[in-house]
Specification:
By secondary structure, the chain is an alpha+beta fold. Helix content is 41%, strand content 10%. It has two domains: 29-167, Phosphorylase Kinase, domain 1 (2-Layer Sandwich); 173-260 and 273-390, Orthogonal Bundle (Transferase(Phosphotransferase), domain 1). This is Protein kinase domain-containing protein.
């Protein structure tokens, strides 16, 4: 009994230390490039302090920090997670990061006291930019920043960081897919691809600029992080015009990292099924998201599943062309995927490949016995979902690392000078 207890203790400690070390690598600070002059001026002026807020900006007179803080009880909670809560106030979204639980990886530039702030704030400032610089807040590659600040301390507890961005009433791709499925119109995947192919091509252009101009990877492209940027007011969803849902924006930049970030070469990254090059990984994930969106929007998912493994549709040809480039190490990039998309968009329908399903489904599900027991339709459905699966892959590390009790490990971060 004592030997077993000792062995169990060593096993636990070994896993605890290993997974805490993996998480420490994941939460290493992101290295950003230089901020714009207007952002540097704002940081030097300490406008990020709750009492040093800027005046209302060009987004409209709907927001001012003083008004938002004075009407804190009127904020409508939209959701919550491990890192904090999300609220809606007037025409804006206010994201509140928990000072105790949020992985504050980066240090505020110019802060001698090493004040930490959420990575999402500098990433949003660099990629989305201050909203005051934009005339049309909902027409952008990324969501613009209306405001950001650190709330005052409450007793012994530190203040919480707040990030304010425009509220997009049409929601994200997940919400759009549910609307299309329930709209009463039987959309085929090919019809949806004709409508939304320009939208995904636009996101490929956005990723290309993010990768090349900023040297950053998104690292968290998924269905719920692609938002509909139309300024159309939220009405009866049955009246939604598809033309109003074609402007897609990448959101949730809390996992943005530079290409050479140590996480991208870690066991945790590779064992999660990610590609070694984070840029190619962003592209492949975007195509998985697009395929998932088409499947969840189409009236007949079984027909999608059958066409997915064949070369009979432009959208399936696009996915497998990108997938094969990724698997064969042929230098997949956002620009190369964009070229593939334009090549496959209008090609005539080909004769389906009869053996495509067997060759392309996940290896463990190719066995004929599995297909006989489950049936071709169910086996194909499982194979499609497994091929398109996207996940953070750190659930086990969080469990063994006792993140629920100890939060995520945070190492030292350098303070950039301005």
């Amino acid at each position: 009994m004592a030997v077993a207890a000792t062995g169990s203790s060593f096993h636990f400690l070994d896993n605890f230390q290993k997974h805490r070390a993996e998480l420490a690598v994941k939460y290493t600070p992101t290295r950003f490039g230089r901020f714009s002059t207007i952002i540097e001026t704002s940081l030097k002026g300490h406008e990020w302090q709750w009492h040093g807020g800027p005046p209302p900006n060009e987004i409209g007179e709907r927001y001012s920090r003083e008004d938002a803080l004075a009407h804190r009880d009127d904020w409508k909670q939209l959701g919550k997670g491990f890192e904090g809560k999300v609220f809606k106030y007037q025409g804006n979204v206010i994201k509140v990061f928990s000072s105790e639980r949020a992985p504050l990886r980066n240090c505020l530039p110019g802060s001698e006291s090493r004040v930490r702030w959420p990575t999402e704030i500098p990433a949003s400032l660099i990629l989305g930019g201050p909203a005051s610089e934009q005339r049309h807040p909902n027409i952008s590659d990324f969501l613009p920043v209306i405001d950001y600040y650190l709330s005052p301390k409450a007793g012994d507890e530190d203040g919480d960081w707040h990030l304010v961005t425009p509220f997009l009433p049409l929601g994200n791709l997940g919400k759009l897919a549910r609307h299309l499925r329930r709209s009463g119109i039987s959309y085929a995947a090919r019809e949806l691809d004709i409508i939304f192919r320009p939208s995904v091509e636009r996101l490929l252009e956005v990723l290309n600029g993010m990768h090349l101009d900023s040297g950053l990877c998104h690292d968290d492209v998924k269905l719920d992080n692609v938002f509909l940027g139309s300024s159309q007011l939220e009405q009866d969803t049955s009246e939604l015009e598809l033309s109003s849902a074609k402007e897609w924006i990448l959101g949730d930049l809390g996992n943005v990292r530079e290409r050479d970030h140590p996480y991208h070469s870690s066991d945790l990254w590779i064992h999660s099924g990610n590609l070694p090059d984070c840029r190619a990984n962003d592209v492949l994930r975007l195509l998985k998201v697009y395929m998932t969106f088409l499947r969840e929007s189409a009236a007949d998912p079984a027909a999608f599943d059958k066409e997915f493994f064949q070369d009979s549709q432009p959208w399936s040809r696009l996915f497998w062309s990108v997938w094969e480039d990724a698997q064969n190490g042929r230098g997949l990039s956002a620009s190369s995927a964009l070229e593939l998309s334009r090549e496959t968009a209008h090609r005539p329908t080909d004769k389906p490949r009869e053996n495509a399903y067997v060759n392309r489904q996940p290896r463990e599900e190719r066995h004929i016995l599995w297909r006989v027991v489950a049936g071709n339709s169910v086996a194909r459905q499982w194979a499609v979902k497994k091929t398109l699966r996207i996940g953070a892959g750190d659930a086990m590390a969080r469990k063994w690392g006792l993140v629920l009790f100890l939060s995520v490990p945070r190492g030292a971060c350098d303070v950039d000078t301005l």
